[in-house]
Amino acid sequence: MFHDPRTKDKGFAMLMNQYQTRIYWHIRRLVVSHEDAQDLLQETFINVYRYLGSFAGDSKLYTWLYRIATNECLRLFKERKRFLVSADGINEKLVDTLQASCPPDGDDLVARLQEAILRLPEKQRLVFNLRYYDELPYEEISQILECSVATLKTNYHYASGKIKEFMMQEQ
Amino acid sequence: MKNEFDLDKIGKQLPYQVPPGFFEEITAQTLAEAKRRSSSSKSPSFGFWKTLSVAASVAVLLVAGYLLFLGRPQPTPEVAQAQPVHAPAPRAEAAPGLVALPTPEEPPKVASLPKQARAASPEKEVAPSKAPQAAKPGQPETLEQLLATLSDEELQQLATIAESEEYVYGESIEK
Questions:
Q1: A27: CB partners within 8 A, 6+ apart
Q2: A13 reaches B (C-beta below 8 A)
Q3: What is the pLDDT of residues B17-51, one digit of tens each?
Q4: Which chain B positions have a beta carbon within 8 Å of A101's beta carbon?
Q5: Of the candidates A76, A60, A86, which has an alpha carbon nearest to the alpha carbon of residue A27?
Q6: Which residues of B are less than 8 Å from A133 in CB distance?
Q7: Distance of CA A4 to CAs A7, A49, B30, B55, Å?
Q8: Tens of pLDDT along B62-85?
Q9: Cα(A52)–Cα(A10) distance, integer angstroms
């Protein structure tokens, strides 16, 4: 369907309608801002439109989509880190954006959990989000992040411990 | 027992909001943008001419730089070679740059001897760098200064010449 030019656009629209919500929230949890998430969601699926014909099928389609989306987020972080004095500055920026994005009558506990996640190192944040929110198995996360399963489990363990410690301090 | 925070208390909720109708419109917007980029990347003419213009600019710059390098004035060998036939005064008045570029066969002209002393002892052309009179032709030199520049052999020769002559400095020598 994607190789035929007559049906490519229709097939692409079907693909995007099916996966856009999952991919959007994966991106949004990382970048926090809706505007950034919208831009990166579009970039992700523009890349999908360009390279879908060459998708080898050696992984599941949504694994491939997650990998493109994650790489787009990491590219954005890398660009923004150039303008920051310290590497931790990007985390502080994300926390500031979170506090500005949260509605005033929103659940404070939910916002603090997001703050705890945003304060994690980049790799731990990625692993935690994919495992906790997207409930992906470690083998698929391994294909998305190109990392061993053992390393992912270690990262998730440390991330969970830091989140719990942060939430206990804030209580 | 350590009291730990339970993540299940919060669940999978997120504090973020999405503008209404966002997911309904994003697919059409993304497809339009993807097709637009795909069509612009398929037209090679713009890319070809752009590349060609950049290459032409680089080539022009290289040629201009090469021509400028060739056109840079070089010190001519004829001026340096003409120095030995002139008296010391014109040589000293020459530009410092020319005087500072001696030919390989001859020593620096500023420190060169007068013609007679140079003909008598060629090896002394290096030593007279201590002779002050060559640098300033206008300054009168004393007999002692002149004699100090001569070697023993030259002094002997001068003495022989003086003894053979009848008058020295206007005085007659009576033997």
A1: A36, A37, A40, A41, A44, A69, A72, A73
A2: yes
A3: 999 999 999 999 999 999 999 887 666 655 677 88
A4: 15-17
A5: A76
A6: 12
A7: 6, 13, 19, 38
A8: 999 999 988 777 666 655 455 555
A9: 13
